[in-house]
Every structure is written in C-alpha cells, then in structure tokens.
Specification:
13 strands; globular; alpha/beta; four-stranded antiparallel sheet; 2 domains; Rossmann fold
C-alpha cells in the first residue's frame, strides 16, 4: 500500500517519483483505526534534507506492505538553514507545537551535522531533549538515527560518545547478538552503512540497561534498544535507510571540501562499498588531488565509474528490520486498544520488553 503523507503537503520529489495518485495525502483525522501514524523529524542539513525524506519514504513504503502508514514531516528549530531550506520546511513541514498537540504511534528522529564537541552545547539541544521526553511518554516506539541516538543516551543516561581517529565510513557486516523481534527473519550477518566520527561503547550501554542487537568487529554496536517509559527506543549508529549512492555523495562532498581547503586531510574512502575498478579510479584521482589540490579538479572526478557499479547490499535487511518495527507498533497498538476497551490500564501495559521482543 502506498505511503500516505498527512496534511496534504507532498514534497515534489516524492510526488514526481511515485505519481500523484499514489502519493496520496490525508488529514490526521482521516487515518483508519488499523493504520499507523508516524512522525518523521528530519533534522538533516539542507543538502541532505530531501534525500533523507526520500530514503525514509521508500524504506517505510517497502516495509509497510499492506499496512496503511501515514507520515507527517517535522524538523527541529534552531538548525542552520538556508533560505531555500527554510522555504522547503515552510512548504512541507509542520512545527513542533503541531507534533506535540497530535498523537503518533511511532516517531523517527534523524541526526544532523554536529558543530560542537559536546552535543549539549548545540543550539538545538533543549528542543531535541524536549522531543526525546515527549516521545518516551507519547509514542509506542521511537527510532533514533546516528547523532540522535548519541544525543538520546547522553540525555537519558549520561553516556558519552568517543571521538574516532578517522571517520567510520562504509558498509560493515553486523552479527546478530541475540534473538529479538526487531531482527526476526534477518540473516545472522547483515550489512549496514555507517558514516560517523564518534562511537558509543558497548559496555557503557549495557551497564545502563540497553540491549545491543547487532555488532560489527570493525564498527562496534549498531542497533540497540531500551524501553523508556511508554516507548521502545530503537537506536541505530548506522544508516539502514541510506540509498545505494548516499555514501558516494558524502565521499564526493568531502573530497570537494578538501580541494576547497575546508578540511586539512583527504577523506578516507568508504570501506566495503566500491568495486575494484571504481576503487582504482578513485585512488588515481586522490593522487592527482594531493599533488594539485584545487576545486577545478572536480570536473575529473570519476563519477560515472563510481556510481555505475554501486549495489545496495543492505536493502533487504533494512526493509526487514523496519517491517519488524511496524509490526511491533501494530501489535502493541492492538493490545493496548483491547486493554483500553476493557476499562483496564492505559497504553503502557503489555508483555513487550527488551528481553521478550
């Protein structure tokens, strides 16, 4: 079933891709009882704002199957935005007051590009923590992506993140650590993209009650969960939502920043991502760029060779994890509705917890 965009405001890139008839919209009051309402709080920088919309729209639509899923777009205030970015938000996003005044079974909170070593010094920190607190009390489950995952554990449990010697960048093989509904029917080894300069440590997460579900020998823990008040909080250090070309775009952007002298070192190539031919062309370009660093060199960047061989090796696993997440929400919603109908207790009741999922 097509994803449905609430509020009648459909981003042009999605309407053009899916067709106006499929990219239907509904008001909040129009969602059927058996449908799931999701708030996507997209905090990505302007350059990735629309790509991030598309990535989550496509993943949720593929994961939903026959389950109606209604989605509404939001973004935190106090994020650096260009005039074009602000106009896009004005056209297609709702304000945080609208979010807090409505009910959603699930919320997805993305990260953004950090500018401070301590996330608590970011200008959006207060708004972000208010969002975390609201989600814990007012949703059935919350997905926290990358920086949002780091910020959430810092806010809830004072768990710090640690700076890496180099960017953790590429597609990494993750092993399942235990049986859990969120990783049900996934293979024992899955691949997930990562793009980050910081990490959380498994022992500190476990000591505060977080349950790690997947882990890589190279990238550390990726997916981990913890029940916080009424919401099952699902944290990703990686990016299962990424499209096939997303890491390429990030790598190309960082190369351009080097040639503009906006960064001191040439970026490391994403691991486990490019094929041998593309890797060789990119190494040759790197040697040229290091000997003659100038932005004009970007015209020689081997875009075609690099993009042509890209394969999304994580797509099926990403869809399955998000299918499991939507199924969890649907099941939890059914159980709590049944409890409410008997006049018993509220939404927090149920047998779902970190161990039984």
């Amino acid at each position: 079933m097509p994803l449905m965009i609430n509020g009648g405001r459909i981003p042009a890139h999605w309407a053009e891709k899916t067709g106006w008839r499929r990219a239907r919209s509904v008001d909040n009051n129009g969602a059927r009882t058996e449908s799931i309402k999701i708030a996507l709080v997209n905090n990505m920088p302007d350059a990735a704002l629309e790509d991030t919309e598309s990535q989550f729209f496509e993943l949720l639509e593929a994961a939903a199957g026959d389950l109606p899923v209604h989605i509404q777009l939001y973004s935190l205030p106090n994020l650096p935005r260009s005039e074009r970015g602000l106009q896009h938000l004005s056209n297609f996003y709702s304000g945080m007051k609208h979010l807090f005044d409505n009910y959603y079974e699930g919320v997805i909170i993305t990260g953004t590009e950090p500018r401070q070593a301590d996330l608590r010094n970011e200008p959006y920190w207060r708004a972000l923590t208010e969002l975390f607190d609201w989600a814990e009390e007012n949703t059935l489950s919350t997905i926290l992506s990358c920086l949002a995952a780091h910020a959430a554990v810092l806010h809830s449990d004072d768990i710090p993140r640690y700076r890496l010697a180099d960017k953790r960048f590429g597609v990494f093989k993750q092993s399942k650590l235990c049986d859990h509904a969120l990783t049900s029917h996934t293979p024992g080894l899955i691949q997930i993209p990562h793009s980050r300069w910081n990490e959380l440590r498994e022992d500190e997460l476990a000591a505060c009650g977080y349950l790690p579900l997947t882990k890589s020998s190279e990238a550390g823990v990726d997916l981990f969960v913890k029940q916080k008040k009424d919401s099952l909080c699902v944290h990703f250090q990686g990016h299962p939502e990424y499209a096939a070309e997303t890491l390429f775009k990030e790598y190309r952007r960082d190369v351009k920043r080097f040639l503009r002298q906006e960064r001191d070192t040439y970026p490391s190539m994403p691991l486990g991502y490019f094929d041998a031919v593309a890797t060789e062309h990119l190494i040759q370009f790197r040697e040229l760029a290091l000997s003659q660093p100038h932005e004009d060199l970007m015209h020689a960047f081997p875009d075609g060779v690099a993009i042509g061989a890209l394969v999304n090796t994580w797509r099926s696993s990403a869809i399955r994890v998000y299918q499991n997440w939507l199924h969890y929400i649907a099941t939890k919603k059914t159980k709590t509705s049944a409890v409410a109908a008997t006049g018993s207790v509220g939404r927090g009741l149920g047998t779902w917890n970190n161990q039984s999922l």
